[in-house]
Design goal:
Helix content: 25-40%
CATH superfamily of the largest domain: Type I PLP-dependent aspartate aminotransferase-like (Major domain)
Distance between the termini: 33 Å
Oligomer: single chain
Largest sheet: 7 strands, mixed
Shape: globular
Strand order of the largest sheet: 4-10-9-8-7-5-6
Strand content: 15-25%
CATH architecture of the largest domain: 3-Layer(aba) Sandwich
Order of helices and strands: HHEEEHHHEHEHEHEHEEEHHEEHEEH
Length: 457
């Protein structure tokens, strides 16, 4: 089945995945990886678990240097939302690269077009923008905007959030590293957020009690801060934390909570925006407009371009934070972002992404019914997760199983993302339903094989 308007990225499932080597990664991948990592250090966990060397990609398919071809369930870790080398995005970047590569923050025609398009596309009065080249840089700028707009300093973030790898953004998140010292940056606070599968506070009927979280926030603001809070900064759906999705009433209530206390609400949508969940902004799934929002990853479909967008009352705060950057808003970046918006509109991809999420949820529910180690499944658009547990009652995380399932499915020809005991999936939103189901079948098989080997059937 196919609910999108074009077929350029359609996958021939009789030919894909295609594994031509007796082992994967194959010999050429192993040799090239060994050469590269003599000097290239600091690899992600997904590469350490499966050190394949990719050569090319088209649509929803990746090809390695040995000629093996994989169905892509990663999108370059949430980046190539429109598939690899979408012809319109590729052409736009090529044209810009042949005309003008950089002009710092001077005005260019393509930048002007992008600004006007963003103003038409983003919800509410999100009308002020600045462009950057990485998610963490955008988050840092968003933090500075919040502080400049409110003349307050403290920031509240949540357990297991991820916001980047510079000092300020790390201090907002769960990452711990001796590089940053023994303490977070001053004025940074973390609180729990509702997790539908692992709630802290529940009602008498066992359902999650969102109001208790907000009650805790109120007391925390009073007792643990110095009453100098600029903003709440959250991921709408936690990515690194394992595709953790909030209950539907959380963000509408948090929006009112922040407004009533004159605290800004900043949504870090580097991972969740631009069609990933079937909306331009994930927050729109709950009809919430944040005061500040960061865009990235799929914003340029792989080209390094990110954005900070702010509501109209706070636009001038950019003027006081030294907002410009060396690479932000260069013509190639603007061309990639503008083309990505146009592709999503022209191909009807927001609705298609929502449909894929519905299909995935139904298929994963069947996995949950079939495998005892599957504790929870969730999907919103093309942002999906499967949580593996040793025991469904205790909900004990099962990271050993997670690693095995990841590697087994990869050997079958599925390129995707590990997250300890939580399996993360982010297929391109141009993927057909039959290709999505084929990938989920491969995961189902890998879970079954892992359960048998670990004696967890």
């Amino acid at each position: 089945m196919n609910s999108r308007k074009t077929n350029w990225a359609r996958v021939d499932l009789k030919a894909i995945p295609k594994i031509v080597t007796s082992e994967v990664p194959g010999p050429k991948s192993k040799a090239l990886h060994a050469r590269c990592t003599k000097n290239f250090k600091g690899l992600s966990e997904q590469v350490k678990l499966f050190p394949v060397a990719f050569e090319s990609g088209h649509g929803c398919v990746l090809k390695d240097v040995d000629g093996n071809e994989y169905l892509d369930f990663s999108s370059g870790i949430y980046v190539t939302t429109l598939g690899h080398c979408h012809p319109k995005v590729t052409e736009a970047v090529q044209k810009a690269a042949g005309q003008l590569m950089n002009a710092h923050d001077f005005t260019t025609p393509i930048k002007t077009q992008l600004m006007e398009k963003l103003a038409q596309t983003l919800p509410g009065d999100l009308k002020g923008y600045q462009l950057y080249d990485s998610g963490t840089t955008a988050v840092e700028a968003g933090m500075r905007v919040c502080r400049a707009a409110t003349h307050q300093h403290e920031l509240i973030s949540c357990f297991y959030d991820y916001h980047g790898k510079t000092y300020g953004s790390v201090s907002l998140g769960h990452i711990r590293s001796p590089v940053y010292g023994a303490v977070r940056a001053p004025g940074m606070h973390m609180v729990p957020r509702p997790d539908c599968y692992r709630p802290i506070w529940t009602k008498a009927d066992g359902s999650i009690d969102t109001d208790q979280y907000l009650k805790f926030y109120d007391e925390y603001l009073d007792k643990a801060t110095v009453h100098n809070v600029a903003a709440f900064v959250l991921e709408p759906i936690q990515g690194w934390g394992g595709s953790v999705m909030p209950p539907d009433d959380f963000f509408p209530k948090l929006r009112k909570f922040c407004t009533d206390r004159k605290i800004l609400l900043m949504a870090d949508e580097v991972l969740t925006s631009w069609g990933r969940t079937g909306q331009w902004l994930c927050m729109s799934n709950w009809d919430v407009v944040p005061d500040v929002v960061t865009l990235g990853k799929g914003f340029g479909n792989g080209f390094p371009v990110t954005c900070v967008a702010v509501r109209e009352p706070y636009m001038e705060s950019f003027e006081s934070i030294s907002a410009s950057s060396s690479y932000g808003g260069n013509p190639m970046a603007c061309a990639a972002a503008l083309a990505s918006i146009e592709v999503i509109e022209e191909e009807g991809l927001l609705a298609h992404a929502r449909r894929l999420g519905e299909v995935a949820q139904k298929r994963m529910e069947k996995m949950k019914a079939s495998h005892r180690m599957v504790g929870d499944v969730r999907a919103k658009g093309c942002l999906m997760g499967i949580e593996l547990v040793k025991d469904r009652t205790a909900k004990t995380p099962f990271p050993e199983a997670g690693k095995m399932v990841y590697q087994k499915a990869f050997r079958k020809g599925l390129a995707w993302i590990p997250a300890g005991h939580i399996l993360r999936m982010s297929p391109p939103i141009v993927m057909d339903e039959d290709a999505l189901l084929k990938g989920l079948d491969m995961i189902d098989e890998a879970i079954g094989e892992t359960a048998r080997e670990l004696g967890c059937q």
